[in-house]
Amino acid sequence: xxxxxxxxxxxxxxxxxxxxxxxxxxxxxxxxxxxxxxxxxxxxxxxxxxxxxxxxxxxxxxxxxxxxxxxxxxxxxxxxxxxxxxxxxxxxxxxxxxxxxxxxxxxxxxxxxxxxxxxxxxxxxxxxxxxxxxxxxxxxxxxxxxxxxxxxxxxxxxxxxxxxxxxxxxxxxxxxxxxxxxxxxxxxxxxxxxxxxxxxxxxxxxxxxxxxxxxxxxxxxxxxxxxxxxxxxxxxxxxxxxxxxxxxxxxxxxxxxxxxxxxxxxxx
Length: 268
Hints:
By secondary structure, the chain is of the alpha/beta class. It has a domain at 136-258: Trna Endonuclease, Chain: A, domain 1, CATH 3.40.1350.10. Helix content is 65%, strand content 19%. The chain has a six-stranded mixed beta sheet with strand order 1-2-3-4-5-6. The longest helix is centred in the first third of the chain and has 144 residues, at 6-149. The model has no long low-confidence stretch (mean pLDDT 84).
């Protein structure tokens, strides 16, 4: 077998080198093709997954939109119903305000008319009491002197509607419904249809004025008082007697003088 020279050996080595490179390139190309196929396969799988997820997302979005549209529709319907209810409430309130205003106007008119009626009633009652008082005086006057004389007074004169007045002292003035007198004693009678505590207190003041008036005229007689009435409560009876006044009560067409045991008439 012939020996291989140096150049031939180089050429032979070069052939081996290029063959290896081509083999490596082929292997690299095959690997690239394989990886490309896997990449493309993976890409297709990813696209399928993306398309599936996108489809699910779009379906979910459509469902959410339907749900939103449904809820929005219900909300708008509820809002319209609420508005109707609110409008109805406002209308009812407006009607109630009108009714209240009308009732208030009627109430004010009733109060006004009632006030006028009460004033008229008070006026009529005042006239009635005055007439009743006048009637009481007419019933008391004819009998009172006789009633007191039976008690041992022996009055010689009875005067109705006696007025005393000092021109230089206006505080010393008084009106006496009935004035009974003799040389020793004088009784001033206050006649009221329905005496009350104020009437009794006023008569005490009247008696004090009478005493001052009498003293200025050197009148040394004893002054006593009496209260006559047609309608008397038990408390007023007790108050009259407590103040030291004779109690004269009208009974039918006459009068009686009530003097309880232990009663002592006050003297001024």
